[in-house]
Amino acid sequence: MTEETLSTYIESAINNIQHNTSESGNNLQEVMTNIRHRPYEVGAMFDCCGQKICEKTNHSYEAVVVAMPDEWRDLANLMVHNHVIDRTFSTGDLIASKNFDLGISIVVTPSYNFYLFRPTKGWPEGNEWIEEYSILIKKIQQSRRHNCNWATASHLALDELANHYGIIYRVTDLHGNSIPKEELKVS
Predict the structure, then answer these.
(1) pTM above the 0.85 mark?
(2) In terms of CB atoms within 10 Å, which end of the chain has fewer, N or C?
(3) Does 100 fall in a domain?
(4) Is residue 14 part of a domain?
């Protein structure tokens, strides 16, 4: 998928997602904007037609857990949530993406948008790839010693993991411009 196709797809998906009012907004763009600077995590799920299924927050810095009835769970196609600091997907985020079989997962932060797109063949089988993510993070931190915090190591690890498993992983600035992995400045 080219950058132009990716941008067109993301823009189309964002512009066409509508739903009822909520604490964070009526459509995906509003939700992304409104949760970006919240001092706690907020998560929202959308179906493939852009209807918001649910929104969840615990009003705390700790991770948000989205629990849904089975009939809603089968509809989930896109998850968006915020991270309070500039960091990519956590292992919990990867697990949720796989368990909900999401087509798109988005993390918004104060400075970036992180995107994961499910491979056409589906998410990798088993959980070894998620365990591999944790191992890669530690390996990268050790190889770079004092010059690599967890956020940077996790971004580099996810980029490597995505390439290996055919997962599309992208990072954009707030205007939708792609950020090369070498230029990302995470907290």
Answers:
(1) no
(2) N
(3) yes
(4) yes
